[in-house]
Amino acid sequence: MAKVTLKIKRFDPQREPASWWSEHALEAEPTERVLDLLNRVKWEQDGTLSFRRSCGHGICGSDSMRIDGANRLACKTLVSELGSTITIEPLLGMRVQRDLIVDLEPFFAAYRTVKPYFISDAPPPPDGRERLQTPAQRLRFDDTTKCILCACCTASCPSFWASSEYIGPASIVQAHRFIFDSRDEGAGERLQVAGETMGVWRCHTAFNCTLACPRGINITQAIGEVKRALATGRVE
């Protein structure tokens, strides 16, 4: 067991207009996750602490936050990866609602603009069969299917910090997933959204998004592929 201190940035609009820091001393195993420590603080020390969490296994993306200056999932970040003092803050560039909870509605509004669902006017295959594609066709967009909408990439993006009107890396990743799917017919509609003023051209290739992604998606490459499709008029 090691002694650790959680230093958590707090905010309660009903209590006071400014944020403050709370500190919590704990004993932790190296194999524990930051989410385990946050749960213990809430259950044993301060029940007013507020944060999002759900599956606890890196699938739902709900416990994204800034841990020691980097956007991470609390459920995937081990105590052994951090020092004896762990600093936890809400994601940057988004309105803080309370403590570590940020307003994600604008993030999901941007996500909806790229139409993240299949678009096809073709009749379904006969006899209830699936719309088939080759392994190579599936591999073309495999990387961007891994997105869990945790917002780590978008909240790490300097262009998003400069303007929340930018649709952000996560939305472009979702557009990429359908643009390059051979079964889908909505690439033109999505490219139109991506090509607008606050679309892909706001990306300045800082690579922050790729470094922040807890799923290891090569986001910068995906954005570049959408840019190339726009510039050439071809989806390849």
Key traits:
alpha+beta, Fumarate Reductase Iron-sulfur Protein, Chain B, domain 2, Ubiquitin-like (UB roll), 2 domains, five-stranded mixed β-sheet, 236 residues, 30% helix, 7 strands, elongated, two-stranded antiparallel sheet
Give an overview of the whole structure:
There is one protein chain. The protein has 236 residues and is an alpha+beta fold. The chain has 2 domains: 2-102, Roll (Ubiquitin-like (UB roll)); 105-232, Alpha-helical ferredoxin (Fumarate Reductase Iron-sulfur Protein, Chain B, domain 2, Orthogonal Bundle), CATH 1.10.1060. 30% of the residues lie in helices and 15% in strands. The strands form 2 sheets. The protein has a 5-stranded mixed beta sheet, covered by helices on one side. A two-stranded antiparallel ribbon has the order 6-7. Strand 6 (96-98) and strand 7 form a beta hairpin. The longest helix has 14 residues, at 219-232. The protein is elongated. The model has no long low-confidence stretch (mean pLDDT 96).
List SSEs in N-to-C order.
Answer: EEHEEEEEHHHHHHH
| Mean pLDDT across all amino acids | 96
Number of strands: 7
Q: How much of the residues is beta strand, in percent?
A: 15-25%
Alpha-carbon distance between the termini? 53 Å
Report helical residue fraction.
Answer: 25-40%
According to CATH, the homologous superfamily of the largest domain is Alpha-helical ferredoxin
Task: Name the overall outline.
Answer: elongated
Strand order of the largest sheet: 2-1-5-3-4
CATH architecture of the largest domain: Orthogonal Bundle
Please write the CATH class name of the largest domain.
Mainly Alpha
CATH level-3 fold name of the largest domain? Fumarate Reductase Iron-sulfur Protein, Chain B, domain 2
Tally of helical runs: 8
- Tell me the Rg in angstroms: 20 Å
* Class based on secondary structure composition and strand pairing: alpha+beta
